[in-house]
TrEMBL record:
SUPFAM superfamilies: P-loop containing nucleoside triphosphate hydrolases. GO terms for biological process: N-acetylglucosamine metabolic process; sulfur compound metabolic process. Pfam families: Sulfotransfer_3 (PF13469). One of its GO terms (molecular function) is N-acetylglucosamine 6-O-sulfotransferase activity. InterPro entries: Gal/GlcNAc/GalNAc_ST (IPR051135), P-loop_NTPase (IPR027417). It comes from Magallana gigas. This is Carbohydrate sulfotransferase 3.
Length: 327
């Protein structure tokens, strides 16, 4: 069992695809998307297959605990304890086409019966595939590291990959894709780096309490050294890195650069990882520096002047400790 914990536009899709390139894995792109959509709507209850309705108390601890419980149900293939919105979310169709048999079943019956009856008739497709899978892999950008201990305690075979990327790259990518409001950019930068800082702090204690079960993965290092880092990643997951896996990693990370921002195989991974350095504007660069200096120091990112960015090819320059705790 593998959980990839990342951030919006942190390179988590590439990382998850490298992990799950073996046939027989059961993978969901963002199993918590539906639950989060409900959590921001105070009058919308969480609905389950048995007809139960649960209203989410609007505090972080309650929501985080519910997300951890829901991920536990995903990992144990207990889909009848997962909220209806997550089980019918478009993300399943868009980002995991291997589950289209299930999603097409939903789509074919949706107009003929209520959502509960529709899911009830189709859910066996998802359940059977999950139960026979060689491994179960879930990628989320929504679960805080503080909630991971609950999963590690309940799932002894779970491994957690904490994916970190330069926050300047994350936030610039969000701007380019229209995922960050330019007017509220300072607040968004502060929230993003506060979350990353809290996750890094919480992971330090988790590594002590659950040795060998968590590993930091620096996206820039994966982008520059895809084969070397992928081998280390597979070793951490106790998975076999063979010629087929190596060929797939090469396919994902080399070749001409693709303009498809949401495709995994976008070509030259090193170019894609650092192109933000040529496009970020001085104002936004200054704002991210203001809020994210602590993350730079913690992970090993260079804090560079706006003009020095143009002459550098990599922002990750870790010390011995930072390299020892990172893939």
């Amino acid at each position: 069992m593998t959980l990839v914990l990342g951030y919006m536009r942190s390179g988590s899709s590439l990382t998850a695809d490298i992990i799950r390139c073996n046939h027989g894995d059961f993978y969901i792109f963002e199993p918590l998307h539906g639950l989060i959509e409900l959590s921001i709507k105070q009058n919308s209850p969480v609905r389950f297959l048995n007809g139960t309705r649960v209203r989410i108390a609007q505090d972080d601890r309650n929501i985080n605990n519910m997300m951890a419980d829901m991920l536990y149900n995903w990992f144990t293939c207990d889909f009848r304890q997962i909220d209806l919105l997550s089980l019918s979310n478009e993300f399943i169709h868009i980002f995991t086409p291997e589950h289209d048999t299930y999603f097409n079943c939903l789509r074919g019956l949706r107009m003929k019966s209520a959502l509960i009856r529709t899911i009830d008739k189709c859910l066996h497709i998802l359940e059977e595939r999950c139960k026979i899978a060689n491994s179960r892999i879930y990628k989320t950008i929504r679960l805080p590291m503080a909630s991971v201990s609950k999963l590690l305690e309940r799932l002894p075979s779970l491994k957690v990959v904490h994916l970190i990327r330069d926050p300047r790259a994350i936030l610039q990518s969000q701007l380019v894709e229209g995922l960050a409001d330019k007017i509220k950019f300072s607040n968004i930068s502060n929230l993003t780096c506060t979350q990353m800082r809290n996750d890094v702090i919480n992971m330090k204690s988790l590594v002590v309490n659950y040795p060998g079960r968590l590993q930091r993965l620096v996206y820039e290092n994966l982008a520059v050294h895809p084969i070397e880092v992928s081998k280390k990643l597979y070793n951490f997951l106790n998975a076999r890195f063979d010629r087929n896996v190596e060929g797939f990693v090469n396919y994902l990370t080399t070749g001409p650069v693709s303009k498809c921002n949401y495709c995994t195989n976008r070509g030259n991974s090193s170019y894609n990882a650092f192109k933000w350095m040529k496009t970020i504007r001085p104002t936004y660069h200054r704002i991210v520096d203001q809020h994210c200096r602590e993350i730079y120091r913690e992970i090993g990112y260079r804090q560079l002047s706006f003009y020095d960015l143009k002459s550098k090819k990599n922002t990750w320059n870790p010390n011995a400790y930072q390299r020892s705790v990172s893939l």
